[in-house]
Design a protein that fits this description.
Elements: E1 4-7, E2 10-12, E3 18-24, E4 32-38, E5 45-50, E6 56-58, E7 66-71, E8 76-81, E9 90-98, E10 101-104, E11 108-112
Parallel strand pairs: 2-11
Antiparallel strand pairs: 1-3, 3-8, 4-5, 4-9, 5-6, 7-8, 9-10, 9-11
Length: 114
């Protein structure tokens, strides 16, 4: 069982930046790593994906503003979020997936507010 722990959330003004981290208790090198988010009253949404080969995909609403990255040696995944908007407010979750095996973190709150 692998543990995932998110950090870096907080309160930020519109236009600001945050960097989320997802630290794993084991190696992440073989996993497809994902960031999801869930806003109040909405379904959980896939925000960004990075494969073991460093291929990246983003939901349209964050393209050009968010950057996903991974450091396998540090067992950590990141989400750099720039030009934050009110609608980015959500709990952000880290996810690791390999075949039928899947792990989730507990989430970190990101609030964008003036």
């Amino acid at each position: 069982q692998m543990q995932l722990v998110e950090s870096g959330g907080g309160l930020v003004q519109p236009g600001g930046s945050l960097r989320l981290s997802c630290s794993a208790s084991g190696s992440i090198s073989i996993y497809v790593m994902n960031w999801y988010r869930q806003a109040p009253g909405k379904e959980r949404e896939l925000v960004a994906t990075i494969t073991p080969g460093d291929n990246r995909n983003y939901v349209d609403s964050v393209k050009g503003r968010f950057t996903i990255s991974r450091d396998n040696a540090k067992r950590t995944m990141y989400l750099q979020m720039n030009s934050l908007k009110l609608e980015d407010t959500a709990v952000y979750y880290c996810n690791a997936k390999y075949g039928h095996v899947e792990y989730w973190g507990q989430g970190t709150q990101v609030t964008v507010s003036s």
